[in-house]
Structure prediction request, 512 residues.
Amino acid sequence: MGWGFDEPTWNAVTGAYYTALGAEALWVGLSIVCCVVALIFGSMHEKAAYRREQDRNGR
Amino acid sequence: MEEQLAELAAKVAALEAKANTTNTMFTETYYYLTIPLMVIIHAGFLAYEMGASRLKNVLASGIKNILAFAFMVPTFYYFGWFFYWALQPGPMAISWQQGIDFANPIGEVMGPNLADNVTGVFWGAFTLFAATTASIFSGAVIERIQVAGFVILAIVLGSFAWVVGAAWGWSAAGWLVTEWGYHDFGAAGLVHAIAGFFALGVLINLGPRIGKFNPDGTANDISGHNLPFTVTGLMLIIVGFWGFLMACVLVPGESWSFSPDKWTTIYGTPLTLGTLSFNILMGFAGGIIGAWMITRDPFWMMSGALGGIISCASGLDLWHPAQALVIGFVGGAALKPCAAFLEKFGIDDAVGAVTVHGTIGIWGVMAVGIFASGVPALSGDAGVATTSFMGQLVGAVVMFLLGFVPGYVVSLILKILGLLRVGEAAEIAGLDPTKVPVQAYPEGIAASASPAE
Prediction:
């Protein structure tokens, strides 16, 4: 899940390198969850704000 | 002698390697720089939309606009870029393998890679194309759309609908290009028309702002709170357009380039950056002059600048500069009458996006069919498809449908789910006081001095 490669120096690194090498699907999944959760919370906040305004004005 | 020859050969090999490295670094830098240039488009859209909003909705419009950009980046990473590669054989075919080879988000291709200097910068440039497409639609729906519904629509447009158009008509392997000779160098159809008609589909379901239309159907003018801000925003969009159009060009000399020594379009046909300079500037000027002649209004003049470039966009690599001015002039002059025509149908397009991008985008596509038929649409030997009126017409119809249908259908679903329009009380009170935790102008804005003073 973490660093993802075992090279002791940069000398032999010639291709893909990044943390989570080999665990990309997990991190892609987590990042999707962040986006979806934020959108759901955003929508709930918005709905609550409209309801408040409606109650205040009676329409 | 042999020793000298070997030494010379080694020197030549070293020089060749150096030249290749320089070319690769130049290529990477070239596309990298298009990204911040295109971010300026978003600075422009932000200013444009906030300026076009009334005081009570300024920040809500800004939030919506910023989120369109933010959500476009990950969704284009997850699937937008994949669809661009996978859908090229279409309309009824899909190449999953090509998508996986070039854009698999859970593979090594979509991450830092010392052996790949191009995927990241290409993806970055295309992501900004996607964000621009979504932002075009954003302005049309200000002051009454829910943020969550808007974000969903922006994702559908930016990470799917226009991507289909790009796969089909903005690639040397796209079926519209190979079979119909469709030519849309600067994306008048596949970005602007798709975004403009997507906006139209949404506006039909969203409805006009309260107070826009009178009971007899006549329209009222709803002015934004800051026209100078709007006009400056439009000029910033123009600045960013140079980055957008720069990114439509392929650099020579790389293994994936069409040419070893010439700039090419995305179709592999040759051009120079000088060609773009001539025609972008002349189209820009023609659009402003045409709009000024009809309206005398700075909002429409700067919209005319945008409309002028969009009018010329499909054939920016082909026009004579004077021709570009005329084509841009027609686009600029047509803007306000087209927008007024749309208003007659009860469509409240707050910033004229349907007209500037949709109608004028179609004009840009058809201009190639009218004035530039018979041009080889691809590189290579005789026998390749050529541009034609019919080919451009087919492309225009496809782009219209790729925009309008998903815009209408998805917004209808959101409407049924109660995720499309804000509540009536919130719309009347204003979206900023209803849901934004800060104020745009906490110290207020002083009223202008009256003429008598």
